[in-house]
């Protein structure tokens, strides 16, 4: 790839992912019908630790680093990720699979690396790849 193209692609990828995440304000756990078990799990694994980071550190406990949601289309994974971001106050990065593919060598990797670096700088953060 040409000089600067990877950086430009990475910046564009971050901007698009954050723009998609603007809908997080519309999602909350009470709007997720039929997902009580999943909501309970997310609260236990993410919400409680992330909303009590200082307490966890005082006790010498590590907070979880991530959760993988999987399942067929239409089962609430996206809504659950948005609701988790809202409940935890985490910055949400939403990536679509095609966004991760580039015709230029190294550009896909640079874009994904930039998203992860941005997420680390903005912890807590959720990276949702749809």
UniProtKB/TrEMBL annotation:
Residues 67-130 form the ATPase AAA-type core domain. This is ATPase AAA-type core domain-containing protein. SUPFAM superfamilies: P-loop containing nucleoside triphosphate hydrolases (SSF52540). One of its GO terms (molecular function) is ATP hydrolysis activity. It holds the Pfam family AAA. It comes from Chloropicon roscoffensis. Keywords: ATP-binding, Nucleotide-binding. PANTHER family: 26S PROTEASOME REGULATORY SUBUNIT.
